[in-house]
Amino acid sequence: MKVFLIAGQSNAVGTSPTDGLEGYVFPDVLLWQAGEFTEENEKLQNVWLRGVRPGMGYTPRHSGIELGICAGLKKGMPRAFVRYAYGTTDLVRDWRSESLWRAPPEKRGDAGWEYLCWKNAFLRAQEAAGEPLEAEGLFFMQGESDAYNREGAARYAENLATLLSDMRAFLGRADLPVCIGEIATKVSAYAPYAEQVRAGQRACCARDKNAAWVPSADLPMSDGWHYTARGAVALGERFAAAMARLTEERR
């Protein structure tokens, strides 16, 4: 079964207050998700779900980029997703990829734990599907947490390139198309290195012919880190359009 992957931190989980999104219902889309899903949405983890709708994010009151991605899917694109995402996680430590590990992580907070969980989510989804999963593309929305980490921001481009290399190796797709979402967090005392992270995102994509940078700074925000419902949907639609361009360029 061909699938798209969604990964990252809170904006990949879906932390936008659901409001006015009643029309964004996709009954034919399959979804497997794991990570930071709470309250009643804990039941939506580690099981194949048929149908994507508003309220499948962090709590039943939150949604995310998955709605916009589904709305923007072109004919012939996979109609199945595997999502692993966890809020307030950085790339420099939490998502540290396997080739950089000094020792395998054993618990949340250990370097590389989120990467390990991402791998395990894919493997569990594959086992439950009863057939091999073929990754057709990755939507990655992360970086806000590195915006208040001097080391993480300075090394963001390098760390992101290594992460994508390791992910592609694990999935057996050296040319896997990847869309990187721009963090919209503004420079502040809480995110002093936001511009460095954005520069790192752009630099990584510029050097990777199979990656696309997806801008989001103009989208409406609900707070300093997260998008409004309409902002998240618009970002998802941009993700889908960028993925379509990447896949069309390879034909």
Automatic annotation (TrEMBL):
Q: Which UniProt keywords apply?
A: Hydrolase
Please name the source species. Candidatus Borkfalkia avicola
Question: Which residue positions does the secretion signal occupy?
Answer: none
A GO molecular function annotation here is:
hydrolase activity
* Name of this protein: Sialate O-acetylesterase
Cited SUPFAM superfamilies: SGNH hydrolase
Q: Which Pfam families match?
A: SASA
Show where the Sialate O-acetylesterase domain sits: 2-244
